[in-house]
Amino acid sequence: MTELQDFLYELNRYMNQTSVLQDSYKRLSENEKQLVLAQSPNGSSPDALYNQSISWLNSLQEEMGIKDEEPY
């Protein structure tokens, strides 16, 4: 496996984990959500992290000519 393939694999895992994080975040109360966002290192919500990871992965796959059977 090349280093770039390894990176894509890990980015895919990151995207899957941000989906789990997003689901957990949605179950929080409004006060808990505000606490989480206030402590976020870059101010990004779990929704934003998930969407960014999808975009990043899809862009890399498109640039590399990788066809994913299940677009995100």
Written account of the structure:
It is a single chain. The chain has 72 residues and is mostly helical. It has three helices and no strands. The longest helix has 24 residues, at 3-26. The radius of gyration is 14 Å and the shape is elongated. The relative contact order is 0.15.
Judged by helices, strands and strand pairing, the structural class is mainly alpha
**N-end to C-end Cα span:** 24 Å
* Low-confidence regions: none
Molecular shape: elongated
Number of strands: 0
Tally of separate helices: 3
N-to-C SSE series? Answer: HHH
What keywords describe this structure?
3 helices, single chain, 72 residues, mainly alpha, 72% helix, 0% strand
Topology:
Blueprint: H1 3-26, H2 30-39, H3 46-63
Helix pairs in contact: 1-3
What is the compact description of this entry?
By secondary structure, this protein is mainly α.
